[in-house]
C-alpha cells in the first residue's frame, strides 16, 4: 500500500516527494472532493496525508470519510503555514467518534 499527499502548498508536497511519497497540490473544496473520490477508488493507496488547510475546506465530509471508510486512512499533517494544534484536532475526532468529550 502506498502513501499519497494532498497539499495546499508546494513546500509540503516537495518534502513528501523527498521521502518518496507522491501527491498533488490543490486549493479549493471542489478539488479536495474530486481528489478524495479518486484516491478512495485507488486500491493501492492505503494512507492519505492531508494538510490542515485542506481538511478545513470541507471538514464534515472528511470526518465522515474517516469514520465510515476502512481504507485509506486519512491523516492530517501540519505544515509550516498551519495555525492549529494537532492534539486538539485528534481530541475533536475522538470525541466525535465515541461521543464523549475528553
From TrEMBL:
Tagged with keyword Cell inner membrane = no
Q: What is this protein called?
A: ATP synthase subunit F
This protein's source sits in the domain of life called Bacteria
Q: Name one Pfam family in it.
A: ATP-synt_F
Which keywords does the record carry?
Ion transport, Transport
From the broadest rank down, the organism's phylogenetic lineage runs: Bacteria, Bacillati, Bacillota, Clostridia, Eubacteriales
Molecular function GO labels: proton-transporting ATPase activity, rotational mechanism
The record's annotation in Gene3D superfamilies points to: ATPase, V1 complex, subunit F (3.40.50.10580)
What family does this belong to? Belongs to the V-ATPase F subunit family.
Amino acid at each position: 500500500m502506498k502513501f499519497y499527499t494532498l497539499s495546499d502548498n508546494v513546500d509540503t508536497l516537495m518534502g513528501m516527494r523527498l521521502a518518496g511519497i507522491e501527491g498533488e497540490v490543490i486549493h479549493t473544496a471542489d478539488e479536495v472532493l474530486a481528489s478524495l473520490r479518486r484516491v478512495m477508488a485507488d486500491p493501492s493507496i492505503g494512507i492519505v496525508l492531508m494538510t490542515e488547510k485542506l481538511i478545513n475546506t470541507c471538514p464534515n465530509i472528511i470526518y465522515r470519510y474517516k469514520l465510515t471508510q476502512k481504507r485509506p486512512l486519512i491523516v492530517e499533517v501540519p505544515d509550516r503555514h498551519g495555525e492549529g494544534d494537532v492534539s486538539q484536532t485528534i481530541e475533536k475526532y475522538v470525541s466525535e467518534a465515541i461521543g464523549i468529550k475528553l
